[in-house]
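Incident log, structure service

09:12 report received: a user says their structure output differs between two submissions of the same chain.
09:20 pulled the input from the user's history:
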Amino acid sequence: MSSEPTTAVPAARATGLAALWPYVQIARPDHWIKNAFMLLGVLLAVFYEPDVVQWSSVGTLVLAVVATCLVASSNYTLNEWLDGPTDAMHPEKRTRPVPLGRIKAGGAYAQWLLLAAAGFFIASRINVWFFGSAVFLWVMGVLYNVPPVRTKEWAYVDVLSESVNNPIRLLLGWFALIDHRVPPVSLMLAYWMVGAYFMGLKRYAEYRHIGDPARAAAYRRSFRHYTEDRLLISVFFYAFCCAFFTGIFIVRYHLELIFFVPFAAGMLAYYLKLGMKPDSPAQKPELLYKERGFVTYTVFVVAVFVLLMFTSMPGLYDLFNVPESKAEPLWVIGADPGE
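09:34 re-ran on a clean worker, output below:
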């Protein structure tokens, strides 16, 4: 692993809570909002096996979220420490605790391991599949950050290796409730690609914000290959892949979601608009809650998805000549032609 990063500013002597606060910062609790991506896994579990909806499941889900947050913070700690030297080259990230010299190597590595151990312990109390998914999330963090692999330095692989956390979080939500089957692969691939779409736009926004190819390359090695055009083309590639895999899931599992497509496309278009703004909010997805219009529309789109997931429209299957889903709906719209 990397040796202690060179600091941009000499460390100031601090004691007590002031000395501990930088370690809290590099664990990034403000990024825990990203674990909301577990929600799709939970919804799918409820859709396929409604019997999992029990009071006892609430405690399990709480433990699942806590375990995921701890493992994610372990990854964030490692990321912050190993990125210290390059963060010093970034116009905003140079003010983070590591570039400012407020973190010690021993403390960073101890926090990384302790957070992982705590997360794994809680995960192991849920079930073996959830535990395996938590380990998978942590291993991807190691591969993303640690030399000589350090996938974050490889053009395009950086986006794909970070966005794979989306389907991993889907698995964590699913396995928190179901431990004897896996969710549809087509939807996991679609979830991976939509994560790559968001991450690709983040890279695009970062590259434009830095505004200097040489400085961008010094900050992130993958930027040596990227250009604005290449990043934007990759974003459209991820969007197309997401659409195709989503289409497979819709036709194979729940045709009613065809009505969800235009709303989902609208959300991707809305995010593209945000990603192309000067000093785009896409650079910091954890702060997107400040974009009230986007948040409102996203909540609406999620509500449409949930409503359609638990609704049956038997006539659609005759119209499109595809087999009807075997999952039990909550609501049936129109007469069932088989009755």
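09:41 both user submissions now match this output. Likely a transient worker issue. Closing.
09:42 reviewer note: The chain has two domains: 22-183, 184-339. The first strand starts at residue 311 and ends at 312.
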